[in-house]
Amino acid sequence: xxxxxxxxxxxxxxxxxxxxxxxxxxxxxxxxxxxxxxxxxxxxxxxxxxxxxxxxxxxxxxxxxxxxxxxxxxxxxxxxxxxxxxxxxxxxxxxxxxxxxxxxxxxxxxxxxxxxxxxxxxxxxxxxxxxxxxxxxxxxxxxxxxxxxxxxxxxxxxxxxxxxxxxxxxxxxxxxxxxxxxxxxxxxxxxxxxxxxxxxxxxxxxxxxxxxxxxxxxxxxxxxxxxxxxxxxxxxxxxxxxxxxxxxxxxxxxxxxxxxxxxxxxxxxxxxxxxxxxxxxxxxxxxxxxxxxxxxxxxxxxxxxxxxxxxxxxxxxxxxxxxxxxxxxxxxxxxxxxxxxxxxxxxxxxxxxxxxxxxxxxxxxxxxxxxxxxxxxxxxxxxxxxxxxxxxxxxxxxxxxxxxxxxxxxxxxxxxxxxxxxxxxxxxxxxxxxxxxxxxxxxxxxxxxxxxxxxxxxxxxxxxxxxxxxxxxxxxxx
Length: 478
Prior knowledge:
This is GntR family transcriptional regulator. The chain has 478 residues and is of the alpha/beta class. The protein contains 16 helices and 15 strands. β1 and β2 form a beta hairpin. It is globular. Residues 81-108 and 472-478 have low confidence and may be disordered.
């Protein structure tokens, strides 16, 4: 960026601060302000342009709201990338890896690799358009009202379209239940299928949110041994016989935390055992959208629809803030019991995120956002593979939102401590562990950092933490 940015502010109409923001957006789009550039301090720009500091402050705030820049207290404001107005999948332009690490994240602040969310793509303009369209058609009124417990019909129709198009699962919109995100869905389903004290089978290392829900409801998770394809059928059969459990919770695609994906034949085996031992399968398929397109296995719900509760999280693949997920039920699960659970846990799902999603499905924005998220995820996986090398397991898909570093419990805790002291937060190794012989290691979430330079710096810290010599905490002796 040039030493002094002198924008050509458009003439009226419009407030001065808004026109200054328009000039900023234009100069980003034309390349005058490249991604990662640091903007002048607000007081300095005000002096340069002969404006009040308040006008520049409001312009910067508006630019941040539009997704044009990242503001860090004590560090300044940095250009986030090209215009975030998503119209096609290739419009996403993240901060390139050639930018300085400081551009995306201030040194001294921790970098969070714990939260498994999609990488941010510019959504502000698309959100603005969707809300404006909803207001124009009068549909926005639904956002300030209670809606029916299973969700708006239009949202469930969009959900059915999305599941058919992106998950390969056909379902009737009338059978879908709209939930307030995946965590709400997990709590809702487990509380409806189980009673306190019941045993729920799952992978030996499983999603932390399921552990939290089970603990809250007084359920016992029984871990089942895994191999490179996920659940081992013989181990599942032994556990079903020993425990007489009636529910299996599983993440068969890009398993959380290990990223392992069940092959089609393995899924057939799991379905066969579930039938033999009358297990209801609760399939958390939050990451199916990230699976390799040419090699996507069928969901368990397509193999054993008569006994599979299927969960698809929109938050994990498009926008966490939507708090949106869909659940389908097999015939043996009473729908009314689920409806009572919705009313008990939240009365009804929120409307606005679902309504925006429905509009995005109809106009193609949802596909554009999802494709942009996956393209960025693939880049981040490649970055992790290059930096972490053989320490990282090969993920179950080239676009996995998280990767797995197998380590002994002691080495995992030591690595976490080293990384934390260097400013990187990781999920504690015991958080996902269910059994004593659980898969041991660290899950590295790639989507939470704002940009690639921040992620790159964090991965180097993790690599150094893995390779750090063993020391005595008491003496510091190597």
